[in-house]
Amino acid sequence: MMSAADDKNGVSALFTALLEDSAEDLYENAPCGYLSTLMDGTIAKVNGTLLDWLGLERVELVGRLRFSDLLSVGGRMYYETHIAPTLAMHGEAGVSHWSSRPPTGHGCRYW
Question: Which of 21, 23, 63, 93 has the highest Cβ tally under 10 A?
Fold first, then answer.
């Protein structure tokens, strides 16, 4: 016979597992693109939404390209003169807009 404490622990474990699964699913299928980089700008993690927008596969980005490689010429100049120095000094920077340069040659804008 299962005690109330066993039942509560089982429900708690199930709830925790569901939260962990849904957090990864939310990241991967978010309505916005997510990208994490190493300190040198090398892409370390990218979600499925951004991959779809860029028309690229994860293996083409992670560990191979830097964030600035995804930017248009103007976007790269802005990143290198404004965002990268702010990241180096403060460890964070707020970016509200950037333009990509996907392999198709057609630029995309993101807010």
Answer: 93
- The domain spans of the chain are 31-110
- The C-alpha atoms of residue 109 and residue 111 are separated, in whole angstroms, by 7
- Report how far residue 76's alpha carbon sits from residue 94's, in angstroms, rounded to the nearest whole number: 16
Give the sign of the dihedral formed by CA 47, CA 48, CA 49, CA 51.
positive
Q: Compute the distance between CA of residue 21 and CA of residue 97 in angstroms, rounded to an integer.
A: 30
Upper half-sphere CA count for residue 33 (Cβ side, 13 Å): 22
Distance CA 28, CA 47 (A): 5
Q: What's this model's pTM, rounded to 2 decimal places? A: 0.66
Tens-level pLDDT at each residue, the chain (111 residues): 545 455 566 677 777 766 666 788 888 988 888 989 998 889 999 999 999 988 899 999 999 999 889 988 888 898 889 888 888 888 887 765 666 665 554 445 444
